[in-house]
Design brief:
Chain A: It is found in: Endoplasmic reticulum membrane. Chain A: Belongs to the DPM3 family. Chain A: It is a multi-pass membrane protein. Chain A: Keywords: Coiled coil, Endoplasmic reticulum, Membrane, Transmembrane, Transmembrane helix. The complex is a heterodimer of chains A (92) and B (249). Chain A is mainly alpha-helical. Helices cover 76% and strands 0% of the residues of chain A. Chain A folds into 2 domains: 37 residues; 53 residues, no CATH class. Chain A has 4 helices and no strands. With 249 residues, chain B is an alpha/beta fold. In chain B, helix 6 packs parallel to helix 9 and helix 8 packs parallel to helix 9. Chain B contains 9 helices and 9 strands. The N and C termini of chain B lie far apart (49 Å). The chains are: A mainly alpha (92), B alpha/beta (249). At the A-B interface, helix 3 and helix 4 of A face helix 2, helix 3, strand 6, helix 6 and strand 9 of B.
Chain lengths: 92, 249
């Protein structure tokens, strides 16, 4: 199954469950509190996911390692390499 | 103690072929080769470097020939092509004459540092991994020379990729990797995308085929010489590619 199909399947399942509870499609006669909670759930979940995404990406950007030492080391090695290659006869 | 260690490595019979596709890397090529020779030499692993130049107008191939004279034709192999033909075919072209049983792929512009090569090899041996992927996003992996915009785009794109594809690897667009030769061959056969997405597709297909993937944190130092490119076009084609992978894998 492709990821797209997995998503469609998952969303359909949730959609059916939501529809059943909110609109009482099977005549389950659930307590009204279930309907009140279920009705805004999709929007609520989307907003929650949006917040989670922003927070996660924000955190990851803030903690993205900056490799200062690696850059310095590279610069030093470049000089060393150039010297050595010159000695070995490479025309640069 | 040291000689016993390098004998052990020789006995294992493993050889690592490093594929270096190049385009206008006249400045960087000698440096990356020098670093590769240094780290492979110090660690004692058997290796060869395969330079796949796509008809660079700046004379990259001539520099490669000079390097061949210095380091030997058994260590530096040249597999040039007439013009810029794309990464997937460069790998195929490079592998054809590779004598190693393992293949390293990496960038030739010094953004990937050969000092991580022994870590890749040890990781592969530790877990018997089919693929070892360098990651900038986890452990003490990281970047240098990226502004906020670039970091934001990178992390944002990676987040979307993780949500949609759940790939089981932290860095999908990275191109510093170690593959078992037959694994690389089988993956390239199956991959159809280009550019960044090609690297992503390789990992996704590897998972599909049940290959094991290990990770090594790496530092990615942005271009020392030359220019970098991450404009609107790139982002759009990335998204297109991502959605294609989402719908087809």
């Amino acid at each position: 199954m492709t990821k797209l199909l997995e998503w469609l399947f998952g969303v359909s399942l949730i959609g059916v469950a939501w529809g059943l509870v909110t609109f009482d499609l099977l005549d389950l006669r659930l307590p009204p509190v279930y309907q009140e909670v279920a009705w805004p759930m999709p929007v609520y979940l989307l907003v929650a996911f949006g917040c989670y995404s922003l927070a996660t990406v924000g955190y990851r950007v803030a903690t993205f390692n900056d490799c200062e030492d690696a850059a310095k080391e590279l610069q030093a090695q470049i000089q060393e390499a150039k010297e050595d290659l010159r000695k070995k006869g490479l025309k640069m | 103690m040291a000689s016993r260690k390098s004998n052990k490595k020789q006995e294992k019979g493993d050889k690592y072929s490093v594929l270096l596709p190049t385009y206008n890397e006249r400045e960087n090529l000698p440096l990356i080769v020098w670093l590769l020779v240094k780290y492979f030499g110090d660690s004692g692993y058997n290796y060869e470097i395969i330079v796949i130049d796509d008809g660079s107008p700046d004379g990259t191939l001539q520099v490669a020939e000079e390097l061949q004279k210095i380091y030997g034709e058994d260590k530096i192999l040249l597999r040039p092509r007439a013009k810029k033909l794309g990464l997937g075919t460069a790998y195929i072209h490079g592998i054809q004459h590779a004598t190693g049983n393992f293949i390293f792929i990496m960038d030739a512009d010094l953004s990937h540092h050969p000092k991580f090569i022994p870590e890749f090899i040890e990781k592969q041996r530790e877990g018997g991994f089919d693929v070892v992927s360098g990651t900038r996003y986890s452990g003490n992996g990281g970047v240098y020379g990226w502004d906020l915009r670039r970091k934001l785009i990178s992390r944002g794109a990676n987040f979307v990729t993780q949500v949609l594809l759940r790939p089981g690897a932290s860095d999908l667009t990275g191109s510093f990797r170690l593959y078992k030769k037959e694994v690389l061959e089988s993956l390239i056969e199956r991959c159809v995308s280009k550019g960044y997405v090609f690297q992503m597709e390789m990992i996704v297909r590897a998972r599909q085929l049940g290959y094991s993937i290990g990770e090594v944190p790496i530092s990615f130092v942005d271009r020392v010489y030359g220019e970098s490119k991450l404009g609107g076009n790139e982002i759009v084609s990335f998204l297109k590619g991502l959605l294609t992978l989402f719908a087809t894998t």
